[in-house]
């Protein structure tokens, strides 16, 4: 079973307020992208990697991969205007005979083999896809402007992380329509009736969105 990883790293990172795309902000001694790229490359579960780079930053991504000795990087594409478009463009570089696609956000630097093994195991059980999730600690409200409309039953809610794994053909089908507003891949598969398993996520899979997240992530190095 060949597992291809798509690494979505094309975000602008506006909310970080940096002078460069999020993938290239510093996390400790290196750039943010180095962490997830090196970890995916080192994983025995992953056969090859396609990176969606910030447009215009394809060459720095390739140089970084070379510098880190990431020999599994097979292609680097310029990302699109949304996460969904970036993943779609990267999927175009995944060969037809790939069995499984693992999609990961470079914004979550600390991806580990444990969570990769859990999402892949779900596919072996016959699921179309798998998503790592965490329980919701806070009470969650649905609002309409300033007015609270509803309080949701948090026991039914989960926070979704990446890496998410999919049967390659299922993911390709899910990406055949409009993907511009999708914030993850599983939502597209679910919308087409695909069976997606929720597996235990990882507290260390923090997502870097703003400067305080970057400090939090640096403390985990
Ligand atoms: O913007 P956000 O942090 O939610 O993005 C999640 C992931 O998707 C990040 O790793 C980011 O680099 C990636 N992304 C992308 N192309 C975009 C927007 C986001 O690859 N146009």
Q: Any idea of the CATH topology?
A: Spore Coat Polysaccharide Biosynthesis Protein SpsA, Chain A
Shape: globular
Helix/strand class: alpha/beta
CATH class category: Alpha Beta
Q: Unreliable runs, pLDDT <50, ≥5 residues?
A: none
- In N-to-C order, the SSE pattern is EEEHEHEHEHEEEEEHHEH
* Radius of gyration based on Cα positions: 17 Å
Sheet bearing the most strands, described? 8 strands, mixed
Helix content: 25-40%
CATH architecture: Alpha-Beta Complex
Explain what you see.
With 221 residues, the protein is α/β, with parallel strands linked by helices. It has one domain: Spore Coat Polysaccharide Biosynthesis Protein SpsA, Chain A (Alpha-Beta Complex). It is 29% helix and 25% strand. It has seven helices and twelve strands. It has helices spanning 32-42, 58-68, 83-91, 113-124, 168-174, 186-191, 211-219, and strands at residues 3-8, 26-27, 30-31, 48-53, 73-78, 100-105, 129-135, 141-144, 147-151, 158-160, 164-167, 196-200. The strands form three sheets. Strands 1, 4, 5, 6, 7, 10, 11 and 12 form an eight-stranded mixed sheet that branches. The protein has a two-stranded antiparallel ribbon with strand order 2-3. α1 (32-42) crosses α2. The longest helix has 12 residues, at 113-124. It starts with a strand and ends with a helix. The model has no long low-confidence stretch (mean pLDDT 97). The structure holds cytidine-5'-monophosphate. Cytidine-5'-monophosphate binds at residues 8-11, 22-23, 52, 79-83, 86, 105-107, 209.
């Amino acid at each position: 079973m060949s597992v291809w990883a798509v690494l979505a790293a094309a975000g602008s990172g506006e909310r970080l307020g940096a002078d460069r795309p999020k993938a290239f902000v510093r996390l400790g001694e290196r750039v943010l992208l180095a962490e997830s790229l090196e970890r995916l490359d080192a994983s025995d579960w992953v056969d090859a990697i396609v990176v969606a780079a910030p447009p215009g930053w394809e060459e720095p991504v390739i140089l970084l991969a070379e510098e880190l000795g990431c020999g599994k990087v097979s292609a680097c594409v310029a990302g699109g205007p949304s996460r969904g478009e970036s993943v779609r463009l990267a999927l175009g570089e995944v060969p037809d005979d790939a069995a499984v696609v693992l999609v990961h956000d470079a914004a979550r630097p600390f991806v580990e083999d444990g969570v990769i093994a859990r999402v892949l195991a779900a596919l072996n059980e016959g699921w179309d896809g798998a998503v790592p999730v965490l329980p919701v600690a806070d009470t969650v409200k649905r609002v309409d402007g300033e007015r609270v409309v509803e309080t949701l039953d948090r026991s039914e809610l989960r926070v979704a992380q990446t890496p998410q794994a999919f049967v390659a053909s299922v993911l390709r089908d899910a990406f055949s329509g409009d993907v511009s507003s999708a914030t993850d891949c599983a939502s597209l598969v679910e919308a087409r009736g695909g069976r997606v398993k929720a597996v235990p996520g990882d507290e260390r899979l923090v997502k870097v969105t703003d400067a305080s997240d970057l400090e939090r992530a640096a403390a985990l190095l």
